[in-house]
Specification:
By secondary structure, the chain is mainly α. The protein has a domain of 107 residues. The protein contains 19 helices and no strands. Helix 15 runs antiparallel to helix 16 and helix 17 runs antiparallel to helix 18. The two termini are 49 Å apart.
Length: 499
């Protein structure tokens, strides 16, 4: 029964992900079909070649099915494509298949149809990217609202627990159950809500980097020392003076930094090369296309293009490509070597299409012009997405400072009001109790800001690995805000800050 419930809940989400994967790969698949058609390759032969392209896994599976129905079941390729059009959930893919079948039957120039369809797909992709940015912006706003609700809950708890509310209404003081409720809220409920938003962001934003296993592996290796450091400070009695000097919030922040900094440095090294490659690849393809127009061979066109000095850190990879061409290594072997250096999915797809264009059709100037033109459009779409989402990062720092400052100010102010401004109360709030509550809330705030970094990293750069950078910076931002506010107000009210 439980499996059926989860199946009903996750089924539509999986279907939506399948459609998004098809439509993400579709423009590049159509580009391949177009370039092969311009080189005299039929679309069915194109499907057969598509089976070997693991950079387009969705269309690799689709190609396997198309070829199976033709060669095993004996159906005509056009009939198979028309049936696939009827069964697919993607409107864009359905229009492409049905349009191709119709154009072949009516005798229309197939290359012209494919070029027209590819142009409309990239325009649709650009519009879809703008809509996706709006959805991500809405998601960030919803996350900010959730954090504001968290702040209100923190303040409400502080007000209730610090004002002898229970003394006034029930005649009894705060119970251990209320502290248990605080721990559950701070260390379970709020982190689970953040994880939920992170999962939603994961479904809404895809990363261009194909694999980041070593970054996550380094994070896992960093997690164990962090747990060890925290355990030593908590369990070794002789270190209690050090705990008092550093403060428990400082120790927790240090542990989060131990977890985040090593994978952050690892990711930074990978991202620098790959993001530069994404920005430089359209210029490289344009240089290859222009060199081909003046009569250079495809290989010499690539060599000529790699000599340009405006590719940044991507120039090292292109220098390796040039050397291997001059050594006589085949382009397909060179592409396999590039895959070991570059992990950006768009860059690898465009480089693969360049290799296929040269291997199949001799790298005609017209085919290379198509490739360079649409590579530039892909870059513009991705650059626009990054530039639009970048300002949202500022919100993360604003809410980190806001939650830290407001919670501290309210907690200490309510304590003063309860113990100084109302001396007639039956019992005053113990300072140790205020310190304990404020310490729990402070650690919870740092944890919340640390988790927020992964949400922001996924939204802004499409990868959880990018979140290690933001998580470390946000945790430090929250810690500094807490220390400044607690020491400032503690000095004003002659209250020692919690440790």
């Amino acid at each position: 029964m439980l499996g059926k419930v989860f199946g009903r809940f996750l089924g539509p989400l999986k279907k939506g992900q399948d459609v998004s994967e098809i439509e993400r790969e579709l423009p590049f698949a159509v580009m391949l079909f177009t370039l092969m058609a311009a080189s005299g390759v039929t679309i069915y032969d194109g499907w057969k070649k598509m089976r070997a392209i693991n950079l387009l896994p969705t269309f690799q599976k689709e190609a396997e099915e198309v070829v199976r129905q033709v060669e095993v079941l004996g159906y005509d390729p056009l009939t198979v494509m028309y049936r696939r059009a009827e069964n697919t959930r993607s409107r864009m893919y359905r229009d492409f298949l049905a349009g191709y079948v119709s154009s072949v039957k009516s005798g229309v120039n197939v290359v012209s149809f494919l070029k027209s369809k590819m142009r409309s797909m990239f325009e649709a992709q650009s519009a879809a990217s703008n809509r996706a940015i709006e959805k991500l912006g809405t998601l960030i706003e919803a996350y900010a609202v959730m954090l504001i609700v968290t702040l209100c809950a923190y303040i409400l708890y502080v007000v209730v627990s610090s004002s002898n509310f229970f003394d006034l209404t029930t005649g009894s003081g705060m119970t251990s159950g209320s502290n248990t409720l605080l721990y559950l809220f701070v260390f379970l409920a709020m982190p689970m809500l953040s994880v939920l938003f992170i999962l939603i962001a994961h479904a809404a934003r895809k990363s261009n980097l194909t694999t980041l296993k070593e970054v996550y592996r380094r994070a896992l290796f960093s997690f164990l020392p962090a747990v060890g450091v925290l355990s030593v400070f908590l369990l070794v009695p002789s270190l209690q003076e050090a705990v008092s000097a550093i403060s428990m919030t400082g120790i927790v922040t240090i542990c989060f930094l131990i977890i985040s900094v090593p994978p952050w440095l690892s990711y930074r090294k990978i991202a620098k090369v790959n993001f530069t490659a994404e920005d430089s690849m359209p210029s490289f393809l344009r240089d290859v296309s222009e060199a081909r127009k003046i009569g250079l061979s495809p290989e010499k066109s690539i060599i000529h293009a790699t000599k340009r000095g405006a590719y940044g850190s991507f120039a090292g990879v292109l220098g390796l490509v040039r050397s291997q061409i001059e050594w006589g290594i085949s382009l397909k072997k060179i592409f396999e070597n590039v895959k070991r250096k570059i992990r950006s999915w768009p860059v690898l797809v465009h480089f693969f299409i360049l290799v296929e264009t040269i291997e199949i059709g001799g790298g005609s100037a017209a085919a290379l012009e198509i490739l360079s033109e649409y590579s530039e459009k892909s870059k513009d779409i991705e650059s626009n997405k990054r530039a639009t989402l970048k300002p949202y990062v500022i919100l993360a720092f604003i809410w980190s400072v806001l939650i830290a400052l407001t919670t501290t100010i309210v907690a200490m102010t309510i304590y003063i009001l309860a113990n100084v401004s109302m001396p007639g109360m039956t019992s005053q709030v113990p300072l140790a109790s205020v310190h304990e509550q404020l310490l729990v809330l402070s650690i919870g705030i740092i944890l919340q800001c640390w988790l927020s970094g992964f949400f922001i990293g996924k939204i802004s750069e499409g990868s959880f690995a990018a979140g290690f950078k933001y998580s470390a910076v946000l945790a430090v931002t929250a810690y500094v805000s807490l220390i400044v506010s607690q020491n400032l107000l503690g000095g004003m009210y002659a209250i020692a800050p919690p440790t």
